């Protein structure tokens, strides 16, 4: 019986060998560039498509992106919800490209591309170059890197640094050089500056060290402490900001948890829903892998299962299983205990370990024994599945609103609202608009597209917008844009609303189909000498 190519090249090396703890392909086989060129072509096409398609279909940025933009106007070391890195990234893009919405979709794709690079490096170190190509293709087949990508927010930024932390930690663990420990600390620190939920990964990696005999040895070596020092150096300014601001972001996390409580049934529904979200995220990867393996007989299936078990029991396999399953199980258990619903996007980074895990366990996908590169069936499956995410997004933004008449929030015409508020302001005020008070989508939209780029005073709450100078606000006045109607006779931030208007915020599809308007209350709040106690009318 001829040997199965999928069984060739297995190399389970001891921890002292180099490359350590790795499973590599047979040295006689090297990837054919002509047979793998489609992989960078697929990823490049995805970058362009997920930049330009949302720019055409959407009339406004997602509220998460708008919020980050008005945070980023003020270079703080933290904001009331999140650490600063996503907001700073948005502000840098604004400095270069202004309100061009395609630039923010490209920013999202840039961070996703960085995650691809981290997963490629991790998988190459563990299973070879062909497996690395398979892993990045699999990562391109999830809604987190496609359908959800136009929503640039801290999850997107964390996605990149989660990938690099996992990849660099593996290098630090297996090569035990100061440079890799230091870079791991930097990546982990930048992850914390992106979103605190990377703490789940950091706790997982610490647990891996503590539970592994080889890992515990690193506590007696300098590398781990070099990484810890680098990590603390990166996050130190944010820690100081937290101390100076009464740990405001942690208060937001507690409030956010309360908002997601789903009642007594949540102790069952919450974790099951979260686990379902994680299965949904990898379902297209599993489908592509299944197609790539083709129709398997009982004997070949048995050999592949035995090989997968052998690889997953290796140190490399154990590492990937640990960093994939432990965070998922930890949050599922937390949801079961507390009854808190884990939101879908909170699990975005958890998917990152799945592609290298599949690429390691299923070497047949790499086309071992073939001179033409990755397994042809897998290539066909990937190239067929990837465009379906574009179709799904088009249905969400174009077809579904066009049929129902109800807009998606990104179908709203952002520049139209900003123009209406600016025109209302100029009718009675001679100076530039410096501040807009209101809710996130409305005030954030005005701030983005208005020529003077006013600051946002979110809900007129100083805790949410600490950059607002009350004395300056009283002197210069503000515009108002919110879903909430001003209360007659009641001042807003010490200012009296005038020219209160129920503005029909227009929405339309990219093909020009008019959709249902959204009522937004806009007004002018003229400056005054002293704060108002009551207002006329």
From TrEMBL:
- Tell me which residues make up the Glycosyltransferase RgtA/B/C/D-like domain: 81-241
Compartment annotation: Cell membrane
Q: What is its main location?
A: membrane
Q: Does the keyword Transit peptide apply?
A: no
- Membrane topology, as annotated: Multi-pass membrane protein
Keyword annotations of the record: Cell membrane, Glycosyltransferase, Membrane, Transferase, Transmembrane, Transmembrane helix
**Domain of life where this protein originates:** Bacteria
Q: Does the keyword Metal-binding apply?
A: no
* Segments traversing the membrane: 37-57, 102-122, 178-211, 223-243, 279-297, 318-340, 346-366, 378-399
What is the protein name for this chain? Answer: 4-amino-4-deoxy-L-arabinose transferase-like glycosyltransferase
């Amino acid at each position: 019986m001829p040997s199965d190519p999928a069984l060739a090249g297995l190399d389970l090396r001891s921890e002292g060998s180099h490359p350590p703890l790795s499973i590599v392909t047979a040295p006689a086989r090297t990837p054919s560039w002509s047979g793998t060129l489609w992989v960078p072509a697929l990823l490049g096409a995805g970058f362009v498509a997920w930049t330009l398609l949302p720019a055409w279909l959407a009339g406004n940025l997602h509220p998460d992106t708008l919020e980050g933009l008005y945070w980023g106007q003020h270079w703080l070391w933290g904001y009331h919800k999140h650490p600063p890195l996503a907001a700073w990234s948005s502000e840098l893009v604004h400095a270069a490209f202004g309100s061009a919405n395609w630039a923010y979709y490209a920013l999202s794709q840039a961070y996703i591309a960085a995650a691809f690079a981290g997963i490629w490096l991790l998988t190459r170190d563990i299973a070879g170059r062909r497996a690395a190509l398979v892993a990045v293709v699999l990562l391109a087949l999830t809604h987190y890197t496609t359908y959800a990508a136009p929503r640039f927010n801290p999850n997107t930024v964390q996605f990149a640094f989660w990938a690099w932390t996992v990849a660099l930690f593996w290098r630090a663990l297996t090569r035990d050089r100061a440079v890799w420990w230091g870079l791991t600390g930097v990546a982990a620190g930048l992850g914390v500056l992106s979103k605190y939920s990377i703490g789940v990964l950091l706790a997982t990696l610490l647990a891996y060290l503590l539970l592994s005999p080889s890992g515990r040895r690193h506590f007696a070596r300098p590398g781990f402490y070099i990484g810890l020092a680098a990590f603390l150096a990166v996050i130190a300014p944010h820690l100081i900001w937290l101390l100076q601001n009464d740990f405001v972001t942690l208060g937001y996390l507690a409030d956010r948890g309360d908002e997601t409580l789903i009642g007594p049934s949540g102790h069952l529904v919450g974790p099951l829903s979260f686990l379902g979200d994680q299965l949904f995220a990898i379902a297209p990867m599993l489908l592509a892998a299944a197609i790539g393996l083709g129709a398997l007989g009982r004997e070949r299936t048995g050999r592949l299962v035995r090989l997968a078990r052998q690889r997953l029991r290796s140190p490399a396999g154990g590492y990937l299983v640990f960093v994939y399953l432990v965070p998922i199980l930890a949050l599922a258990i937390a949801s079961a205990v507390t009854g808190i619903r884990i939101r879908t996007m909170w699990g975005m980074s958890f998917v990152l370990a799945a592609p290298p895990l599949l690429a390691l366990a299923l070497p047949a996908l790499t086309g071992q024994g073939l001179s033409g590169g990755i397994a042809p069936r897998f290539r066909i499956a990937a190239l067929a599945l990837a465009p379906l995410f574009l179709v799904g997004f088009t249905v969400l933004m174009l077809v579904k609103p066009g049929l129902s008449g109800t807009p998606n929030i990104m179908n709203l015409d952002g520049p139209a609202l900003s123009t209406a508020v600016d025109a209302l302001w100029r009718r009675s005020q001679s100076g530039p608009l410096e501040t807009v008070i209101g809710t996130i989508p409305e005030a954030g939209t005005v701030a983005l597209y208005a020529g003077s780029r006013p600051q946002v005073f979110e809900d007129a709450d100083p805790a949410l917008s600490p950059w607002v100078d009350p004395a300056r606000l009283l002197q210069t006045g503000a515009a108002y844009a919110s879903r909430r109607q001003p209360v007659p006779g009641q001042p807003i931030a010490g200012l009296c609303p005038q020219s209160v208007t129920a503005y029909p915020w227009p929405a339309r599809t990219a093909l020009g189909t008019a959709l249902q308007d959204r009522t937004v209350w806009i007004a002018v709040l003229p400056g005054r000498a002293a704060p108002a106690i009551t207002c006329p009318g």
